[in-house]
Amino acid sequence: MYFGSERMKITKIEKQKNNQDRWSVFIDGEFAFGVTTEEVFVFKLTVGKEISEIELEKMIKEKDYSKAKDVALKFLSYRARSEKELRDKLISKEFDPVTIDRVIEFLKRYDYVNDEKFAKSYVRERIRLKFEGRKKLIYDLKQKGIKQEIIDHVLNNTDINEIDHALKLLEKKVPDKTELGLKEKQRIYQFLLRKGFSYDIIQKAFNVYFH
Asked: What is the three-class DSSP state of 132?
């Protein structure tokens, strides 16, 4: 970032060779920053225009905010994300904390980020596609930065039949219901534990399935 005297002059604006939609802006003969074609018009950048250090700093902050917002929206376009996932993404792109907070505030205002809605959707999908148990759901949601009170509220208001889910997984693992040896039984127990079921749920599912 370039900061010269109190008033500075844009001396050159040239198209970048590797990206036809980006321009390099030179102030007082030195490269200052890069902008998109849209930003050239938004900030009314022209050769010979004089700007102050405060104006330049504000311009760069707005440019970073716009870029961070684009990164976040593109990240959200693939699937819903938790607030923590979005923050981690923006941090990885080296945006400053103030810019990240502004982007998160914008996304929350328009309901692009809502951890409770995210948790509800996540739980429904994991149950439907993976038949996961409560422990696995709780662990994964915590890893995604969801607060405990939200997790409790979502799980307490979601129909989670762990016995039924464990039975579906047992049916996949042992479709013919053949009697299992000790090692095979232990292997399936460990599999169901990783899926987030308690020993009590697993034992009940075994009793029902191999009855």
From this structure: coil
